Amino acid sequence: QVQLVESGGRLVQAGGSLRLSCAASGRTFSTYNVGWFRQPPGKERDFVAGINWTGGISTYADSVKGRFTISRDNAKNTVYLEMGSLKPEDTAVYYCAAKTGGTWYPANYMHYDYWGQGTQVTVSS
Q1: Rg of the Cα atoms in the chain
Q2: HSE-up (13 A, CA, CB side) for residue 22
Q3: What is the DSSP secondary-structure string of 58-115?
Q4: Alpha-carbon torsion angle 122, 6, 36, 38, nearest 10
Q5: 114, 108, 100, 83: which is closest to 10 by C-alpha?
Q6: Could you tell me how far CA 54 lies from the centroid of its own chain?
């Protein structure tokens, strides 16, 4: 089994910064591609950022480019999402997800095999 646990979400003022963490169980996590998604209240789940298993390839939604940075530390079985210049529209539940073997398409949530429970990020005006 693979378990993913997000943490770090909280209330923050617009313009502030947060770092979210996704901690995973299992040695095999280091071979998985990982994505971050978010779901604002009453809206669909949207792609935020993705990182391949080596950490050498990262991709971002246009809405967060230049503000968010995804990274991973495979020795710690952890993926991070650093968020800066936060805006009220960034308010959402943030989820991390892991993709096992097969072709990786970062932005398609249906391609992921494991999901965390989510962590709430609220950005005040």
Answers
A1: 13
A2: 32
A3: EEE-TTTTTTEEEEEEGGGTEEEEEE-S--GGG-EEEEEEEE-SS---TT-GGG-SEE
A4: -30
A5: 83
A6: 16
Residues 6+ apart with CB under 8 A from 66: none
Tokens representing 63 are: 């809405």
Reported as a single tens digit per residue, the pLDDT across 4-60 is 999 999 999 999 999 999 999 877 788 899 999 999 999 999 999 999 988 899 999
Please state the separation of Cα 77 from the chain's center in Å.
14
Instruction: Kindly state the DSSP code that residue 32 receives in the 8-state scheme.
Output: S
Q: Is 45 helix (H, G, I), strand (E, B) or coil?
A: coil
pLDDT tens for 72-111 read: 998 899 999 999 999 999 999 999 999 987 788 999 999 8
